[in-house]
């Protein structure tokens, strides 16, 4: 089993950066998440790469390269929930009918948190929104036929595959040929003045077109060091279960990119942005007329970091997916099920694909920001949840740990005011010499700001 430092080195190399920076990285404490994979080590490593990329950016000002220290226990906790409400409760994480169901030949997972995804499932099954009715309906189908039908209806579902089945699948083979972080260098751009000694990303304009959960984690990280993050959502989208977690530090607006006036606003924002982070299906912006070539024409110096679920090539390149769905497809859930002797599918102890990929996305932004400062060509970076699953699947472990849940000492004493009420947030999972991570805007609902960087 590899150490978090060696995993960090492997992830750092995906950014094509010299290994010397790793001399400034250290870890403390223990990670104790039980899994058939090294999820604690991976979580600490992915978080450390984002922190180290920020330290690299800071060092370009001529100051000494700051030391970075990761707290492994806090990394474990941040890969779950970072907020502890005071006198109120977070919304339920899952829709009542989301989850694993036994078909007539195997297991399938239904993802129904979004209303239109739930509607797709219910239409295919021809049943009411009730877990018992859904269970009965699923039992009449083969897992593969039901997955195909739900996906064709615009929904989101995944049959549980073994790792071997995934690697033999056309999409699994395609993802294996993709880099974990695929970068394209397009042109040199003069970088305007960004940052200050205490807020190294102050003034960086980040246009955030991401949803649950990896993309919002990436932009939360950038906002924590001063980036001006503007999140854009459609008028119909909501994700109440995670908003208190991931909207902190950002302003939030709504635009309908199928409406002429809103499209003109979005195009103006693209010309003003330094960074675009997006996590829609890989053809979504293309279908809206804002594909990669158009974005480059609108803003040739845009740093463009994109995420999708199932990879950027292969027959599933445009398929909907989320962390837990990708776990089912790629064999991670099957491995966990065998490892723990479970009678039904078991998922990773935390959503490692989301949180890990989110930190790698933030590191990718910082890599290209540093390239721009050095006068090196910048362009785009592409990542996928399935690619991260492939990396994690190569990091097995055999230990079962006794994980201690978050306690009072794990949280900041300072009270954080969110839109929903007061809360305590976990202490930061890492430290960077000379810097503090904090956010300029409280967590709040979508669409409560104007669509402007000013």
Write the layout of secondary structure elements.
Blueprint: H1 4-14, E1 25-28, H2 39-59, E2 68-71, H3 72-78, E3 83-85, E4 99-102, E5 107-110, H4 115-125, H5 131-138, H6 143-152, E6 157-159, H7 163-168, H8 170-176, E7 182-187, E8 205-209, H9 214-223, E9 228-233, H10 243-246, E10 250-254, H11 260-272, E11 275-278, H12 284-287, H13 292-298, E12 303-308, H14 323-330, H15 332-339, H16 352-374, E13 378-384, H17 385-393, E14 416-417, E15 422-425, E16 430-432
Parallel strand pairs: 1-2, 8-9, 8-11, 9-10, 11-12, 12-13
Antiparallel strand pairs: 2-16, 3-15, 4-5, 5-6, 7-13, 14-15
What integer value in Å does the Rg equal? 21 Å
pLDDT averaged over residues: 96
Indicate the structural class: alpha/beta
Unreliable spans are: none
What strand order characterises the main sheet? Answer: 7-13-12-11-8-9-10
For the record, give the distance between the C-alpha atoms at the N and C termini, rounded to a whole number.
Answer: 48 Å
Shape: globular
Oligomer: single chain
CATH architecture of the domain at 4-90 and 180-312 and 349-432: 3-Layer(aba) Sandwich
CATH class identity of the domain at 4-90 and 180-312 and 349-432:
Alpha Beta
Briefly note the CATH topology name of the domain at 4-90 and 180-312 and 349-432: Rossmann fold
Walkthrough of the structure:
By secondary structure, the protein is of the alpha/beta class. The chain has a domain at 4-90 and 180-312 and 349-432: Crotonobetainyl-coa:carnitine coa-transferase, domain 1 (Rossmann fold, 3-Layer(aba) Sandwich), CATH 3.40.50.10540. Helix content is 37%, strand content 15%. The protein is built from 17 helices and 16 strands. Strands 7-13-12-11-8-9-10 form a 7-stranded mixed β-sheet, with helices on both faces. The model has no long low-confidence stretch (mean pLDDT 96).
